[in-house]
């Protein structure tokens, strides 16, 4: 079992760990470890759904060095109640802590509830398009609001696809992405 500080790390600590893990391939989890993370996380989410009396099907996947959990249900399910971005982020953090408690290792799993990740990615694409329009109209650069390291990674990918350049600025909760012409 890890100490309390590690177990309940702040978002800034989590972000630093994400960056460290992505830079050091020796620390990348194995497929078996990711499968175990996914199984532990699925058990945790399934128990939570049972307690809340919400129907949902859980799919587990591993890609890009992370375990991905998708929770979906029929259109008449209460699952949509859990799909707000803030709720998904909180549940993801709780699920990560549950996995860490069982494995003793930091987890970078991604949780998606009722398509919330796809919806957020589309929203980020709209933000990037708006910022690019400002640059094309003459602005030297355009800053986006602060967001998580995962969302900034998605933004960097979208910006690159559009032929522009982006970088992250700021510290902690104020860390944000700035876009400029190539």
Low-confidence stretches: 1-25
Query: How much of the residues is beta strand, in percent?
Result: 15-25%
Give a quick account of the main beta sheet: strands, pairing sense, barrel closure. Answer: 3 strands, mixed
CA radius of gyration? 18 Å
Instruction: Write down the overall geometry.
Output: globular
Strand numbers in spatial order across the main sheet: 1-2-3
Outline:
This protein has helices at residues 4-7, 11-23, 31-52, 85-103, 116-136, 149-161; strands at 57-63, 66-72, 110-113, 141-143, 164-169, 176-181. It has 182 residues and is α+β, with helices and mostly antiparallel strands.
Structure notes:
The chain has helices at residues 4-7, 11-23, 31-52, 85-103, 116-136, 149-161, and strands at residues 57-63, 66-72, 110-113, 141-143, 164-169, 176-181. The chain is globular. It contains 6 helices and 6 strands, in the order H-H-H-E-E-H-E-H-E-H-E-E. Helix 3 (31-52) crosses helix 4. It has 2 domains: 4-114, K homology (KH) domain (GMP Synthetase, Chain A, domain 3), CATH 3.30.300.20; 118-181, Ribosomal Protein S8, Chain: A, domain 1 (2-Layer Sandwich). It is of the alpha+beta class and 182 residues long. The strands form 2 sheets. The protein has a 3-stranded mixed β-sheet, with helices on both faces.
């Amino acid at each position: 079992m890890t100490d309390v500080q590690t177990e309940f790390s702040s978002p800034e600590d989590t972000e630093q760990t994400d960056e460290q893990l992505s830079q050091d391939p020796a620390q990348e989890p194995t497929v078996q470890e990711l499968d175990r993370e996914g199984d532990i996380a699925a058990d945790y989410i399934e128990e939570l759904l049972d307690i809340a009396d919400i129907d949902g099907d859980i799919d587990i996947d591993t890609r890009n060095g992370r375990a991905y959990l998708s929770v979906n249900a029929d259109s008449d399910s209460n699952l949509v109640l859990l799909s707000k971005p803030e709720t998904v982020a909180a549940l993801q953090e709780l699920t990560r802590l549950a996995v860490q408690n069982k494995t003793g290792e930091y987890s970078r799993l991604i949780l998606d509830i009722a398509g919330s990740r796809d919806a957020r990615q589309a929203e980020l694409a709209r933000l990037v398009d708006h910022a690019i329009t400002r640059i094309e109209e003459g602005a030297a650069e355009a800053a986006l609001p602060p967001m998580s390291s995962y969302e900034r990674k998605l933004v960097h990918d979208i910006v690159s696809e559009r032929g522009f350049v982006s970088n992250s600025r700021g510290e902690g909760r104020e860390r944000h992405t700035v876009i400029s012409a190539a």
